[in-house]
Amino acid sequence: MACLFNRQVFRKLAKMQVARYGHKVDHWSRIRKKKTHMDRALKHFDEFYGNVYGKSWESIRTALLMEEHKYMAVVNSFSDIDRIKSELESHGAMNLKTIYEIYKEYIDEKPCKSDKKRREENQASDRMEAMISDAEMSVVQSHYPVDYESPPTSLSTNNEAEDVTAKDQALQPIEMKSIDSNLSEVALDENRIVHPNAGLSGLYEFVPATKIKGMEDWVLESQHYGYYKEGSEFSVNVEKEMVLTFPQFLNIYTFEGSNNSKFPSPRKGSTGVSDYYLLDGASVLPIFALDLQPGDAVLDMCAAPGGKMLSILQTLMPQMLVANDIQKSRVNRIHSVINQYVAGIGNWEDRLIVTQRDARFIDDKDMFNKILVDVPCTTDRHVLHSEDNNLFKPQRIQERLKIPELQAAILTNALKIISVGGTVVYATCSLSPIQNDGVVGMALKKAWEETNSIMIVKDMSEALNPLRCLYRFGNFGLKYGHIAIPTLSNNWGPMYFCKIVRTR
């Protein structure tokens, strides 16, 4: 009896201790210790982008972490266009085409003032600091290959002469040198050499990683990245593009810089479809880079959720538009956009095709003369604001590690199937130089090796100049593409895009 009594007393005391020290999940002490997937993403970006972008990362980070970011309204050409444009203008929104034409005329009339004057007038609020300190600069330069001809000497665009020089140097054709030719000049780190027979798996060395059992030799993306210089006698020609083409029937409305007004929710017009589609302001740039023309055959390789596909459709130019994605759920999202904005109008049922295929294995060679390759990426803004299906959750580590390999495979296939004279536009919503220029460089070389085709990269710096009143185009040693950086005054992006034309 005494033994039973003692046992009951012990159980009561144990319960009291649990009640006293066993805090609930919403207790401050438990919350403080909890690490979310968004926290993991931010920590990774701080460690990686902090080195890549230097002092600029602080302002980019602030913009990315803001709950609200900025959109543009793509007017639905299948609804009441004049009414919609009038209503948007009554809210203070402006047509992007009009903005572009005004600033282009200003630049053409006063070329001597050029970029420096415009930056002072239109981007004073979010101008980057004049120069990164020597210590920070040495950290950034340490990430570039030893034989990289023009590592960034500044992440600032304040100094016009340095900015122009950096662009010219970065956009020169790149001559691939064999490893043997440099053995006598530099001491190579054998662990960082990507051998030609390694295929796309060579990207793994440059992919973000945390410790994985059995793969402890993998390193953080920020510790090692480079542009892949394997093989010999390989070069990419770069040509300047002077003008950005605005399709006649593509009407996009935006608010001026520092005006964070919100567009009202779109309503249905007299034709039964929604008035306009709200799209991230930087997402329209790859559409302009496609340079759409009447009669184009267009393939959107990774079309979901459908914003860019719909924007292409609004130009009324494609003779055929194929919107593709790999998963049934994503294909359903494309159908949802079509039903909301296009359903039952015109003769688009025979010209708009939705498919579900793996973009890496689409084999419709020479069928398309325009291909948009808006690949899956780390979606830098999204992973900082949503826990749902976050790419930085531990269960998705290996998937995240393979992203550059997947991106390079999709882009390589696009370059192989595009018709001669056709245009491929590669795009991501990531700040990662691996997923951007790194993937472009790898895909260009793979496509050349496998098809002997010749590609030209388009330098769109001059064409984009009139839009610098709205976009921050960062110059961070890019060799192929362009990147729109998020800012507090125009908080959209990031958006990297690269225009490639097949000439043979």
Give your account of this protein's structure.
- The chain has 16 helices and 15 strands.
- It has helices at 2-21, 28-33, 37-53, 56-65, 81-90, 96-109, 114-122, 134-141, 160-170, 285-289, 307-314, 328-341, 397-401, 403-417, 434-451, 461-464, and strands at 71-75, 94-95, 174-175, 235-240, 252-254, 276-280, 297-300, 320-325, 352-356, 370-374, 423-428, 455-459, 472-474, 482-485, 495-502.
- The strands form 2 sheets. Strands 3, 4, 7, 8, 9, 10, 11, 12, 13, 14 and 15 form an 11-stranded mixed β-sheet that branches.
- Helix 3 packs antiparallel against helix 4 and helix 14 (403-417) crosses helix 15.
- 39% of the residues are buried.
- Residues 123-146, 153-171 and 186-233 have low confidence and may be disordered.
Topology:
Layout: H1 2-21, H2 28-33, H3 37-53, H4 56-65, E1 71-75, H5 81-90, E2 94-95, H6 96-109, H7 114-122, H8 134-141, H9 160-170, E3 174-175, E4 235-240, E5 252-254, E6 276-280, H10 285-289, E7 297-300, H11 307-314, E8 320-325, H12 328-341, E9 352-356, E10 370-374, H13 397-401, H14 403-417, E11 423-428, H15 434-451, E12 455-459, H16 461-464, E13 472-474, E14 482-485, E15 495-502
Parallel strand pairs: 4-12, 7-8, 7-10, 8-9, 10-11
Antiparallel strand pairs: 1-5, 1-6, 2-5, 3-4, 11-15, 12-15, 13-14, 14-15
Helix pairs in contact: 3-4, 14-15
